[in-house]
Records
---
Amino acid sequence: MKQLVMKTNIDNKIPDFFTTLEDILPSLRENSDEDIKYFIKLLPTAIKYKIVPILYELHVYGNTRRINSKLFGNRILSKKQKIIYFIRFCLFSIKSLLFYRKIISQNKIIANVGCERNISKFYLEAMEKLAKKNNSIVISFNVPCTFKYLFNKHIFYYYSYNFIKSEKKLTLNRISNVILDEIKKNSSLQDLSYIKNNICVNVIFLFREYLKSEKFLNKFRSNIFGLIQDYDYSYNKYIYVELFKKYNISTFSFQHAINFYNHLYPYIYSDHYLVWGQQELNRAREKNSSLNISIVGYPKGLFNVEVYNNGKRNILYFLSSHDFATSQTEARQLDYVNLIIEKIKNSLLNYDEQLELILIPHPQDNPSLYKGNKVKICNKNIESLLSQAKLLVFEDTTAIFNYMLMEIPILYINDENNNDPLLNKEFNSISSFYNGEDMNEKIDNSMKLKVDLEKRKKHFEYFFRSANQEDYINQIHNKIKRN
């Protein structure tokens, strides 16, 4: 089955921008030391995660939208979250100091996975079991996601603060200015002060990450099984991959989300890419036919949701992200979403029974983004809402698969250009709304349509091949042992 590859107009501009950057930055290498020279080679791809949203946002909105931290993919933590993170950081750093000799002497699996999502937590648990099988330890390059690993003898955190000398900082500032000049050429934005500060901060951060990795590899590279990450296509994760490959250490990347679109992050840089199902294998192979890619499945249990019937009176609308430019396409902008919301609200007026539309924002979005719609917004206790759901409405979000195997009618909203990244035309397992159709008729038919769980299961398994935890870990273990 051919995987849909969607593009936007900005796709044509991004490669030109980064080709230019790759041509310009080497001119700064001449009077630089070896560290800076190799870092400059890696920077264009690493910084893409921060630059692409700026170019994309300016392309779509021009100067009409305020440039803020969301453009840089920065996750804003609450005061409570910051305190908890700082405590975890301190405690895990102390643990690493206390067991420094053990870290030096034992075989190691290096893990760098996110921390908030269930799949990332599962990956870290899988790394712990791999370590037990291989009589080794796991070194996490980011602070472990839970305090339970504080007393775990197989998981440790590695931190290294690297002081940057003033002459190197001057070179890094020059690099930031080169990037800023290129952004100016690709936009009409006049005030770039906010962008400039963020570019400088990110370039220095990435250089520190580069130094941290180099220092670690120089000390420990003789007994490392491999580097395992939940993605590798940008920012510090890309730097880790290239440095580990430079020292001939195997690198592995797990799939971390369903890629509905290819407009921003199409590439995989690790030696091995481990995916959930056929959909991602096809998508990745389209970009790189020689990629070493394997289907290892998706762990059973992460989609299990128990729902008790408590009266059907809700329409739940699960939104894709509209607060981060990296998650958007030109065919699914916020204006179109607001139009769909209004159409659904108007349709519900035709029903004698009182049906309530409830918006479920994407976890990374600020719910206030949708307050102007005058609709109830909820992003907690979703299970209790599901027990009262008469219809689930979805955009491009992995959440659709969380509930696809439940006997609740589903309506998928195709984007404004009627693209079908969910491949529902092939599977025909759920209802789809296409731009230009009658929303009243579509909602009515969707709620009356009998749920065909067999069709839904085939659709689901194209994206997610089930695997129990033990089989999942054994597959990864065998791949690491072979390499």
---
Amino acid sequence: MRVKGLVMSFLLRLRFASFTVVLAPLFFLPFSASAGLPGLDYLGGAKFCDAILEAHPPGAAAGFFIDTFGDAIPCIDRLAASGKATTFRVHLAWSDTHQFNPRDFDGIAAKARRLNGLAKKYPTYSFYVSGACEHNLNEVQAKILRAKVLAQCQDCKGYVNTPWRGARIDGLNEIHGFPKDKRGRPTKPTGAYLVSFDGVAAVDSDIGAWEAAHSDALIRFLWEPRFNGRWETNDNTPRPKRRGFADAKLIRSLAYVWNGKGSVRQLPRKWVQKSHSENHGTGDGRAEKPVELIRINADSIDWVATNGVRLASAKQYRPPLTSSGFSKKEPGHRFYAPMWGYELAEKARAVSGSRLVYLRVKGKNYGPINPAFREGSYRQ
């Protein structure tokens, strides 16, 4: 597979207090085949296909469950027809217990026939098929499942073995999250592999470090809980009752990180910049927008472009935070941005040529940071 670059074209219309800016930026991120392909692991995409069609960045790979959240084949077909995605990875089966009975392998493999139909329909595209997502199969069982699936998907590009605590086998394997050894060093399989943030919210992680650690992966999928219909990682709503599926803005905010973070400067000790505030599905206007958690008790702060232009302001949201790493003695004073992090970065780029911004607190600048990325502390 030869990939020369990824082109993402967004049309952003941002309204501010005194003026309107219409941005039609063209983002180009060159990479070689050895650097792998970025992707978005939609998984439950059957539930939010229109948002995917609207916001999927051209050239990026797309991941789905074939039927865990409803029939995904029509959505995959629509996305393929649009030309925005030409590389897909599709999981055929999921189990909440990670257990798969070999007696069910024929039924799992039969699902691959419809994916093979798409592979025939789009012969120049790459369709990778995964038999069981996050399985606990042993090596023999994993190879039997692969053989049965490939017999039904002979036009697919390849098979992906996706273990939980199960066996890795020869060929393509997929790992999830940001696995590390006891010393905190990233780990990965030997040989060709795929990686997905599946199970760990990418926006709460050090995406730059993860990208660097897995630059040799065939595909690097970003994932967010709302791709599975969960408002947050700890949302335990039963699958049939989930309503938190992603919208176009969330997809754009994830794809935006492929522009790179830039030359940021570390914030003061125990300050945290969250690119996406918590979203509990209540319609709270702060949801998904950046929040600055700082140690200075200020009435308000400003976000300022590198050329000194003020981009946005926010008053302190009270009371201050006294949990999650903060305390009554050292509270976290909260300031919520009035727009999404990627929108703030684009506004900065429009007026200064740089996506970086300073936090101005009581007349002093801190940073710069990229508001599309989390800074200060990470959940993984």
